[in-house]
Write the structure tokens for this entry.
Amino acid sequence: MPAVFPTLKTGAVAQYPATDSNQFASFVVRFLDGSDQRHRQFPAPLRTWVIKLNMLDETELNALEQFFIAQEGSVGTFSFVDPWTQTTFTNCSLKQDTLQYAVQGEMQGTASLTVMENRV
Amino acid sequence: MPYFPQLSSGATGQYPVQKRRTERTIINQLPDGHTVKFADAGAEQVEWQLTFQDLTDSEIAGLQQFFATCEGQLNGFTFLDPLDNLLVWSEALNEPAWEASTLLQFTAGISDPNGGTGATTIVNPTGSDVSVQQSVDAPGALVYCFSAYVRSQNGVSISLFRQTSDASASNIYATQAAWSRISLSGSLNTAVDSTTVGIAVPAGQSVDVYGFQLEAQPAASPYKSSFSAGGVYSNAHFSQDALTVTTTGPNRNHCTLTISAR
């Protein structure tokens, strides 16, 4: 059973502002006459979500850090629920090998994680 | 091994604190988007940026002296993460890190005050008080707060304790039917580099426990679960060779320190 991306105490995965994107990969050959020929490299786009979190308490930050440790950065795979569509993506990874968070005061923690869908 | 000093308040750091945990992954990305990944566990690193403000002259002198002792980045020291639980396996009392009598009975998977099932019921069927304890390679002389959530249907009196080979402190708490958080705070007059904390369960009684946490500060912060690694870093180093101190008035000094550890 794959790991699951941790939720906040509210049950939410993400906060505003949240970003998601679709990644395509196109191979473009350009010719001298200005025309081009294009090939699709990815069979389907890969989704990426940027999760920016703030006003977290230390328990929530700790849950994120433990998750990051368990994933060994970008190595591990886990299940992620798209916060827009509630679709479950069963094979995702973190896109980063560094987790940086700051604690400005009590319940004022900030962190950012980028989740990417893996090609299955 | 020298250890990072606490401020006069007993705290290791002040807000804001930044922490950065870095892993290294070798990734081979194929044209169709598939990836082959390998973890490079040896490259793990943790880094803290501690910003200190309004330190007294004696506090900043202590930091400067410690920095000089370490000769900047050269020599290592023990650093206790101010953002982490110093204990390991905080919810797994059956792990070897916890020392307990084989006569004690543990039942894990009990509902906990945070909505999970991380609590444990401890039953002491013997005729004498029995304890569960964990030792941490952290200097005994620092200020610590050892905390845990407890409950019991019988109003059992349990005790938390902290001890080294030559000093100890403990306190007795009456448990309630609802979860309550109890804590034992203070420092010990000792020079020993190891600290043991634990809970003693009275003879013939049972108690539910959850969320053991040890922190190098005077009061308990929100509970942070821990697994195989705690917040004790026995070979930390400064990431800088110069310590710049700014004095903004009498007894008002500030500086920023960056510490890294593996």
